[in-house]
């Protein structure tokens, strides 16, 4: 045992305690992926996925990934400077064209795209101005740049506060300034006021990097994200996207002017010193783009599911903060209550919704993070709202008079449908599990000995 083990003690003992109370919600091993997942003997509705259009389960993407692997194998054996395929270049051309930019660089993850871009462009004579609630990847990119350039200035402004952004930019000590924001905030579900921010950015002669990981493929009339919603397509200097949300795959990208992209491809450490995106993912992302570009029906379904669910939560009396999207947090503002609510949903109603507590979110802002997707049916959402309403009342979050607007018949249909789909969806593994349980019980009865719980 060394100090390495000592370091783990406090956190891991909290985890053990949470497990013993059956409220530990992380690393539950799933046997499939989608809006309904099998975990152990449970078949759960899943609201913890960023696969917003449900594309990861689409035949088109799966076939494309298989074909990519068949043609190129499982990996490229090196990083992009030595391992760029014609299909990487085709994907970059198509992403750039889709978003109206001259050029694009595809990275192996969105995280790497962000870290690499910040590390490339920030310098000793730059001020970087960050929204306080920016994603960890933005913070890490800033820290990496700061480690290399100790005179770089870092300033934060209050979340989505344009006046404070203005003031923060005015106080910058360097003339080269970069503002970094997200388009759609992933644990709050609210949107950056991009049009107003853009005015302030330009007024101060700054540049802007927009991480629209959650907005691209999900928001805007044609799925081109928060910039499209604001009529600012192509106006953002550095636009970041990922394949790990609406694209149903893995990978990340940056769109910008050609010279910026060419420079980035030679300078971003996460691009130059990390393995090239495998062709299975390149082809899956290309197939996702085929769908997203030509058929807006999934994007519109996502948006209408989000609107339905949000409005129903509000009319039940839940606090969803500033959410105006398919990410609908349920603010409970207390750690124990949030963990308990998540556990009741999971154990009592077979619903997986992630509790977010400190340090992931500020203390006092604890919430359940609920992601509605285009793959959820009306019946899935109806059942979930009933469960939320009942548990909300049981835990004193909602008044006892709270109820959904659904009829008795709808409720009966939803509950029955949940049970039937749960059993059917679980399929063979579920039946196998049940048979083994029965077998174990029979052995216990005959021998009088308890079998190994594992
Ligand atoms: C806002 C935001 N930016 C960037 C990323 C990183 O994307 P990726 O999963 O492709 O690494 C995430 C992923 O969680 C995210 O939520």
Task: Give a short overview.
With about 450 residues, the chain is of the alpha/beta class.
List keywords for this structure.
Aspartate Aminotransferase, domain 2; binds pyridoxal-5'-phosphate; globular; Aspartate Aminotransferase, domain 1; alpha/beta; 3-stranded mixed sheet; 2 domains; single chain; 7-stranded mixed sheet; 13% strand; 15 helices; 454 residues
Can you offer a commentary on this structure?
With 454 residues, this protein is α/β, with parallel strands linked by helices. It folds into two domains: 12-46 and 296-408, Aspartate Aminotransferase, domain 1, CATH 3.90.1150; 57-294, 3-Layer(aba) Sandwich (Aspartate Aminotransferase, domain 2). It is 48% helix and 13% strand. It has 15 helices and 13 strands. The chain has helices at 3-20, 59-72, 86-99, 110-121, 136-148, 162-170, 194-203, 225-229, 258-267, 269-272, 279-294, 297-316, 335-349, 378-394, 408-447, and strands at 36-39, 42-46, 103-107, 126-131, 153-157, 176-182, 207-211, 238-242, 252-256, 330-331, 351-352, 354-356, 367-369. It has a seven-stranded mixed beta sheet, sandwiched between helices. Strand 1 and strand 2 form a beta hairpin. Helix 13 (335-349) packs across helix 14. It is globular and about 75 Å long. The relative contact order is 0.14. Bound molecules: pyridoxal-5'-phosphate.
Q: Describe the sheet with the most strands.
A: 7 strands, mixed
Q: How would you describe the shape?
A: globular
Portion of residues within helices: 40-55%
Q: What portion of the residues fall into strands of 2 or more residues?
A: 5-15%
**Whole-Å distance between the termini?**
28 Å
Number of helices: 15
Radius of gyration, in angstroms, nearest whole number? 24 Å
In spatial order, strands of the major sheet run 3-9-8-7-6-4-5
| Count of spatially separate domains | 2
Each distinct ligand: pyridoxal-5'-phosphate
Mean pLDDT across all amino acids: 93
Order of helices and strands: HEEHHEHEHEHEHEHEEHHHHEHEEEHH
Number of strands: 13
CATH superfamily heading of the largest domain: Type I PLP-dependent aspartate aminotransferase-like (Major domain)
